[in-house]
Write a structure and sequence with these properties.
single chain; globular; two-stranded antiparallel sheet; 2 strands; mainly alpha; 203 residues; 2% strand
């Protein structure tokens, strides 16, 4: 089966509402890149519309209600985070279009922590931890040009950070702690690499 045939087959399965069909980042990226942005809005393709409706049905019918189903939600978080990174790291794509396509990912693909964790043990604590971890992954996105970083920061503040205020400010605190820990580890790794290189260089 070719890549195109597989993509079409998965689309058909989702359209027929088979449960927990895998969502592939490459497929969604393909659909998003082929969806036009007009007047600041994304013109959904048939495939994106089907995907949006499919995930909405899964969540509205309480299909994902056991601890093992969290693995499917986790896969959606990974795909959504990867897609946002790909969109913003593609500097051939205008920042305005990257923002519009990322908005679609956040609105329809990125799981809502409260919805995803409602059947989990210790749900409130788990929700905060998961939301912070996913937010942390997006905050550490490496971008090259200053204007791109600035545009991404504006988008993050609007689409991801502001939605947590004021009711879930503790999630931002957790994310900030995780970012600080990650940066500290990276600084330590770089320092060790420099020391190792210095010791190995001949005098």
């Amino acid at each position: 089966m070719s890549v195109d045939e597989k993509r079409v087959s998965l689309h058909v399965l989702r359209a027929r509402c088979f449960f927990c069909i895998p969502i592939d980042a490459d497929d969604v990226c393909f659909y998003l890149r082929h969806a036009a942005v007009q007047n600041g809005a994304l013109k959904e393709t048939a495939e994106l519309r089907t995907l949006r409706q499919y995930l909405a049905r899964l969540n509205s019918t309480d299909v994902l209600c056991t601890p093992s189903d969290l693995a499917y939600q986790e896969s959606l978080w990974r795909v959504a985070t990867l897609l946002i990174a790909r969109l913003w790291m593609d500097e051939a794509m205008p920042a305005v279009e990257a923002a519009v396509r990322s908005d679609w990912v956040v609105a329809h693909l990125l799981p809502d922590p409260e919805l995803a964790m409602r059947f989990a043990t210790d749900a409130p604590a788990r929700m905060a931890e998961v939301a912070a971890a996913k937010l942390c992954a997006s905050l550490l996105l490496p971008l090259g040009h200053a204007k791109r970083r600035e545009a991404y920061a504006v988008w993050m503040a609007r689409a991801r950070l502001s939605t947590l205020l004021p009711g879930n400010s503790h999630v931002l605190d957790l994310a900030a702690e995780q970012v600080a820990q990650s940066l500290t580890r990276r600084i330590s790794e770089v320092a060790n690499e420099i020391r190792s290189k210095t010791r190995s260089d001949p005098a």
